[in-house]
Amino acid sequence: MAILEISGLRKSYGSTEVLRGVDLQVNAGELVCVIGPSGSGKSTMLRCCNLLEVPTQGQIVANGHEVTSPSVNINHVRQDIGMVFQQFNLYPHLTALENVSLALLKVQGKTKVDAEQIAMAALEQVGLGARAKFYPAQLSGGQQQRVGIARAVALKPHVILFDEPTSALDPELVEDVLNVMRDLRKRGMTMLVVTHEMAFAHAAADRVVFMDGGVVVEQGTAAEVFEAPREARTKSFLARYG
Ligand code: ADP
Ligand code: MG
């Protein structure tokens, strides 16, 4: 069953067309990795899915609700579709627990007691129960990103979008974050992950999508795309990662 269905998605900035008809589907419980060169529209595609960008044309349906409908409720969309950013986007003046609790309080209208209980469980799930009272500056980049993941998880979304979640991290911290994502996958979370971590995509993804020039050039199982790419553009992109 499709949890996220993107059809004919187009996005232009002025006269520059950045997405030129993207079709992509993520089924329940799948981990789909999106790879492709810088500037190919990967971030724009993710940002269109939770309306951080307004699509120019096309349809996005998440969990049966049309995100691109003119009457859509943005708050519902953002509770249904979690997002994890490259730069974490945590509030520096709030503790880990407060960062994770915020949307539970302000958007979902939970009581403080309920919000903190849910937030604490999410922090424990990413291995940060003991860091709940720490501020972002007191945490490593990998820990900050795990707070970012806990914040997404706490809202119990149907799908989580990750935009290069490990690109801002020192190499020794990358694996901790990838392990949290592997664990989420095991728990059945549906995930769409833009990444340059090719070993992770190869080993962990149910499907791999290669984007270039604002379109999906090729997609298949991880084995198909990495071991037997069909398109010349995919082959030359992968050759650079040797
Ligand atoms: P990727 O994530 O694959 O590197 P992006 O989606 O960030 O690609 O960007 C795709 C193209 O869209 C790039 O050429 C980028 O310069 C352009 N772009 C992205 N955001 C904007 C914006 N807000 N205004 C104008 N151009 C943008
Ligand atoms: Mg990007």
UniProtKB/TrEMBL annotation:
UniProt-listed Pfam families: ABC_tran
Subcellular location: Cell membrane
Molecular function terms, GO-annotated: ATP binding
InterPro entries associated with the record: AAA+_ATPase (IPR003593), ABC_ATPase_HisP-typ (IPR030679), ABC_transporter-like_ATP-bd (IPR003439), ABC_transporter-like_CS (IPR017871), MetN_ABC_transporter-like (IPR050086), P-loop_NTPase (IPR027417)
Keywords recorded for this protein, A-Z: Amino-acid transport, ATP-binding, Cell membrane, Membrane, Nucleotide-binding, Transport
Annotated membrane topology: Peripheral membrane protein
Similarity comment: Belongs to the ABC transporter superfamily.
Protein name (Swiss-Prot/TrEMBL): Amino acid ABC transporter ATP-binding protein
Taxonomic placement: Bacteria, Pseudomonadati, Pseudomonadota, Betaproteobacteria, Burkholderiales
